[in-house]
Amino acid sequence: MDVELRHLRALVAVVDTGTFTDAATELGTSQAAVSRSVAALETALGVRVLHRTTRHLAPTPTGEQILAGARRILAETAHLHRIAEQSRSELRVGYAWAALGKHTRRLQRAWTGAPLVFVQSNTATAGLSEGAADVAVLRRGLPADPDLRIDPRFDTALIGHENRCAAIATDNPLARRRTLRVEDLTRYTVAIDARTGTTTPGLWPPGRGPAAIRSTHGVDEWLTLIAAGQAVGITSEATANQNPRPGVAYRMLRAVPRIEVWLAWWRDDPPAQLSDLIRLGREAYAEI
């Protein structure tokens, strides 16, 4: 049996997400399929790549070396896809939750270059690592960096800042207010997407965090929980602008840090008209 790209993608997804279930969600497949791919990789290579217990999952020492090689192979494959995609003569801008919010349409109208296509991709790099986008809109640090510093494979440009909003069910008493504070959400379960969202427990004062945290995977699941009254959330104002949902009310948050909005691209392969995109993005936010 030969090693296939799907085997490598499964290994990387399992290690990055920490579970087979979350890896399946990211890859858009079943948990069983992910498990079979990892098992097939181990069979093809003749070594065990993961330690598995009921409470712990981690690469073996050999698996760590194979993981590094898998990342290189997938990055090179994505690079080949980017070369091929350039022949389509369009600039693809990836995003996870929202493009540029209320500024998206303004930028699209001002754009005069090759067709500008916004692509939703619920990954940590908003489709950039996966070859689905040429440029990514990011509102948090790139992966593989616990301090949220920038991944060295990519270059970035800050284009603006956005306010934070609380998202609550429309029948929640808090929906009667025009603005809120994070302390108002303390007694609720807060839905947080740790991979692509912008909310962390650090938004709350020390020792005064939310009653509970509910992990979610993407904006649709997040909104569904909130509309059902099973959680509340915090997000960028861009999410409120681009993701209205029956049963969900967005309210501006006071006294919280604003969210930085970045554009990111491959350091060794910047797309054509990148400077125009950065300029128009900054003009749309009109802040820097």
Protein topology:
Elements: H1 5-17, H2 20-27, H3 31-45, E1 50-52, E2 57-59, H4 61-85, E3 91-95, H5 104-110, E4 116-120, E5 135-138, E6 154-162, E7 164-169, E8 179-180, E9 189-192, E10 212-215, H6 219-227, E11 233-236, H7 237-242, E12 248-253, E13 259-266, H8 274-285
Parallel strand pairs: 3-4, 3-5, 8-12, 9-10
Antiparallel strand pairs: 1-2, 5-13, 6-13, 7-11, 7-12
Helix pairs in contact: 1-2, 1-3, 1-4, 2-3, 5-8
Mean pLDDT: 89
As a percent range, the share of helical residues equals 25-40%
CATH class of the largest domain: Alpha Beta
The shape, in one word, is globular
Oligomeric state of shown chains: single chain
Q: What class do helices, strands and sheet pairing give?
A: alpha/beta
Which CATH-level-2 architecture of the largest domain? 3-Layer(aba) Sandwich
CATH superfamily of the largest domain: Periplasmic binding protein-like II
Number of helices: 8
Strand ordering within the main sheet? 4-3-5-13-6
Order of helices and strands: HHHEEHEHEEEEEEEHEHEEH
CATH topology of the largest domain: D-Maltodextrin-Binding Protein, domain 2
Q: Would you count the extended β strands for me?
A: 13
Classify the beta-strand content into a percent band.
Answer: 15-25%
Indicate how many domains the architecture comprises.
3
Main sheet overview? 5 strands, mixed
How far the N terminus sits from the C terminus, by CA atoms, comes to: 54 Å
Q: In terms of per-residue confidence, which ranges show pLDDT below 50 for 5 or more consecutive residues?
A: 144-149
